[in-house]
Amino acid sequence: MPVVNRRDLLRALSMTLPSIALAQTDKALRISLAEWSVHRAIQSQKMTNLDFPRYASELGIEGLEFVNVLWGAPTQGYIARLRTAMKQTGTRCVMIMCDDEGMMGASSSAARKKTVDNHRKWIDYCAELGGHAIRTNMHSDITPKTPAERDTVLGYCADSFASLADYARMVGLNVVVENHWGLSSDPDAIVALVKKVGKANFGTLPDFGNFPVDTDRYAAVKKMMPYAKGVSFKCYDFGADGKETSMNLDRLMKVVQESGYKGFVGIEYEGKRLSELEGAKAGKKFLDKYAA
């Protein structure tokens, strides 16, 4: 019997799974739920990552945006149980958000290589779960203070992301970078990075939050949307009228629509006044009119 390695199995698996973020559907936009919306419940052991599909299903949400730091030990049996949970609840993996695996823009070439290697397993897991992307960060141990230092960090990041995107392409996956503080909260830096990497399967995950207070979030999201392979619907609180109290979500969704984006929009509730469940429900209620 011929020996089949894990890479060949994943490649074969990816060919049987649709690219759900780009799939043609009757809806221009579909709703997913970022697992960070329930991070307090998971961290307090009120639920686990394996419960997340059922939780989203009960909210009427089909898409799952997993967060790697909220998982249990991802053994092969664990992945199988997660696939079973999704099948039983009619939910599907959209992406895995990856943190705590190193700095893609580290000044040390050895550290950058290690970081890329650390992210590869999450590409493998995402492929097995039928997702379309992993979300990554462009963090660095250098805080650029000059244009030259900025270009240096972007160069480090570009090399790392190009390598990771090449790996992801073998199983038909995307790599996306989010505005997630530091240099990444500068939309011009993210756009410059995407252009430097120059890979069709590398793009952005615009987050409605995660910008310094003096940033025009509407203009920033607009700059990132041409390269978007996902959208993070960050929200903090909703008033009696059903609208978000800290930003104009209708204006932001208009930016998303005008960009021509079609795919999943992931609710990421981070507020404190409403419970995690109430916040997710309010976010879905708001988004339903755009996914109708």
Please describe what this structure looks like.
With 292 residues, this protein is of the alpha/beta class. It has a single domain, classed as Divalent-metal-dependent TIM barrel enzymes (TIM Barrel, Alpha-Beta Barrel). The chain has an eight-stranded parallel beta sheet, covered by helices on one side. α4 links the parallel β2 and β3. The longest helix has 23 residues. The N terminus is likely disordered.
Structure, briefly:
With 292 residues, the chain is of the alpha/beta class. The protein contains 10 helices and 8 strands.
The structure class reads alpha/beta
Number of strands: 8
- Please provide the ordered H/E string of secondary-structure elements: HEHHEHEHEHEHEHEHEH
Low-confidence stretches: 1-25
Helix content: 40-55%
Number of domains: 1
Mean of all residue-level pLDDT scores: 91
In CATH, the homologous superfamily goes by the name Divalent-metal-dependent TIM barrel enzymes
CATH topology: TIM Barrel
Which architecture per CATH? Alpha-Beta Barrel
Strand content: 5-15%
- The Cα radius of gyration reads 18 Å
Number of helices: 10
| CATH class wording | Alpha Beta
End-to-end distance: 50 Å
Biggest sheet details: 8 strands, parallel
Task: Assign an overall shape.
Answer: globular
Strand order of the largest sheet: 6-5-4-3-2-1-8-7
Search tags:
292 residues, TIM Barrel, eight-stranded parallel sheet, globular
